[in-house]
Amino acid sequence: MSKEEKKVNRRDFLFTASYTVGAVGVGAVIWPMIDQMNPDKAQKALATTEVDISSIEPGKSITVLWRGKPIFIKKRTSEEIAEARAVKLDDLPDPQKDEDRVKEGKDEWLVMLGVCTHLGCVPLKDKGDFNGWFCPCHGSHYDVSGRIRKGPAPTNMEIPKFEFVDSNTIKIG
Amino acid sequence: MSEHEYTPKSKAGKWFNDRLPLLTLGAHLTDYPTPKNLNYWWTFGGILTFCLITQIVTGIVLAMHYVAHADLAFASVEHIMRDVNYGWLIRYIHSNGASMFFLAVYIHIFRSLFYGSYKSPREVIWIIGLMIYLLMMAAAFMGYVLPWGQMSFWGATVITNLFSAIPLVGDSITTWLWGAYSVDNPTLNRFFSLHYLIPFLILGLVVLHIWALHVPGNNNPVGIDIKKPSKDTVPFHPYITIKDAFALLVFMIIFAGFVFFTPNVLGHSDNYIPANPLVTPAHIVPEWYLLPFYAILRSVPDKLGGVILMFSAIFILFVLPWLDTSKVRSAVFRPIYRQFFWILVIDVLMLGYVGAMPAEGVYLVLARVGTVYYFLHFIVVMPVVGYLEKTDPIPMSISEPVLTGGAEPSIARKVNDKV
Q1: Which of B21, B116, B136, B419 has fewest C-beta within 10 Å?
Q2: Which chain A residues are closer than 8 Å to B190 by Cβ?
């Protein structure tokens, strides 16, 4: 009896084969149950949105909804652009040049996801210590380029994928 | 399971019991020997069972009128409040019932902490209880989202965003939880589904909780092991049932006071504004029963660190039976631990208070001090005090202090002799 236990016999093979096939089968059933919770086709269909920006005055901004989230579109004044570009990168918790956050030649247009990178609240405009945005939930301060300056948020406000369809229209997504 | 043989008197009862011993189970629950010195802190198990049943019954009824859709949810809740017969009553019982549930569970947990009910041989009861507590928090959070008001929406946003702090996969997990690119209709739909499921999971765990309790039997205020059945025990029915019933009645009076006189005092007025994804309310606060954890989250100036610390504050309780090194269960005989216990109570209350305040200035300082002490209590105080403390002599039996009017050191067992 003890001799036989040491050998790999037909029964061991059958056990291993059964468990393996069973595990593959369970996995094949579990994955659809998990993946069904990911965004569906209807959600993905809302992936782009076109916005008319002709009526925005310099220094003003509008908020539009894209994929259920607010997008801030701000036409910055030349002073505001200069202010954003005067900041030393060493002073930024998440160093990024203002030039890298806008489209070249369209430097006055800041288009960004209006969602605090801490826990997802919508920051308030023209508030905070840095002339930009301030998140009331947990006190994150963003500058005029939407970069995090102070508070618990780890990164700058996100720049979504967008392009200028013509000089008065942008397409987000 | 039962220490006694039970035979039904009637022939039909015997016939049935031989095939499914439900009557034996009933007899076990009726005669279950219970320590005779249980005080009113021990009545919260029954009160919690009442709370769970209340939430399930009122919840099933509300689901008959509620519509889980982002465009209709808010209006359907108002419809329940204005049009449905007694809808206002049922909803107020359900929403205040959640608060009463947590009130009772916190008393139940601190009872356990004071009398050492989590210690050997009751670790599994304690861990099952914590699992129930976790599910309660999940159910309460998702239930709060369902009316789709401003606090619902932004509470859901903040809490689901906690998962985005996880490195690498955080954003994918958050999107998966949402079923969209923000908190949206798919989120509401699944939260409703899970909110309906969780109470039944809790019910299953409650059965295990009581089953695990009936193996070693109840702890008691003196905290000593007792022989059962003996002169130290009484049958569960009628002695404990009548005591539980009285406590439950007092509890129900307080419950009814909230429902009928101040049904919204524990809620937040912003939740009577329909959800608006473009505007965040100025002060986002969770429901009161989550405030201490919220204070811990906000006390850390780092996103991931705050999230880790908040979850640790709950999960550290799971290893509590092994952090406590004292051989004496009840704090009645632990003069040093007893003081730290009350400091912890004050600490948690203070964290709850600062969690409701803005995270700045003195509140932030208090939150940080409170957070540090919370962890010190479990990681340092419990092991060290348990080891160094000179405990008071504990009695030989429950009857002894009752019959002699106090513990006699001369005849008392000295558990910590060697320390």
Answers
A1: B419
A2: 37
Nearest CA among B306, B151, B153, B275 for reference residue A139: B306
- Using CB atoms within 10 A of its CB, is residue B209 exposed (0-12), middle (13-18) or buried (19+)? buried
When CB atoms are compared, the residue of B183, B190, B278 closest to A122 is B278
Q: Which of A65, A67, A152 is closest, CB to CB, to B306?
A: A152
Is the predicted pLDDT of residue B238 greater than 50, yes or no?
Answer: yes
Domain residue limits, chain B: 27-284, 295-400+407-419
Q: What is the pTM of this model?
A: 0.89
Neighboring chain A residues of B71 at a CB cutoff of 8 Å:
none
Q: Please indicate whether, in this complex, the C-beta atoms of A68 and B277 are within 8 angstroms of each other.
A: yes
> What pLDDT, on the 0 to 100 scale, is given for residue A2?
54
ipTM of the complex: 0.81
Percent of chain A whose predicted confidence (pLDDT) is above 90: 28
Residues of A in contact with B182 (CB under 8 A): 67-69, 120
- Annotated catalytic sites of A, by residue? 138
B181 at the A interface (CB within 8 A)?
yes
Cα–Cα distance for residue pair B185/B156, rounded to 1 Å: 12
- Cβ-proximal residues to A153 (8 Å cutoff; 6+ apart), any chain: A116, A117, A118, A135, A138, A140, A142, B303
At B205-232, the pLDDT tens digits run 999 999 999 999 999 999 999 887 888 9
**Minimal C-alpha gap between A5 and chain B (Å):** 36
Alpha-carbon radius of gyration of chain B = 24
Query: Residues B74-126: pLDDT tens digits?
Result: 999 999 999 999 999 999 999 999 999 999 999 999 999 999 999 999 999 99
Q: Name the nearest CA neighbour of A67 among B71, B179, B191.
A: B179
> Residue A5 — very low, low, confident or very high, per pLDDT cuts 50/70/90?
low
Q: A129: closest CA among A159, A150, A107?
A: A150
Residue type, B400: E
Residue in A67, A69, A137 nearest the CB of B158: A137
CB contact under 8 A, A67 and B158: no
Q: Does A118 touch chain B (CB under 8 A)?
A: yes
CA angle A149, A151, A156 (to 5 degrees): 50
Chain A CA closest to residue B173: A38
Which element (helix H / strand E) includes B170? Answer: helix B170-178
CATH number of B27-284: 1.20.810.10
**Chain B 285-314, residues with CB within 8 Å of chain A CB atoms:** 298, 300-304, 306
Q: Nearest to residue B343, comparing CAs of B309, B365, B370, B316?
A: B370
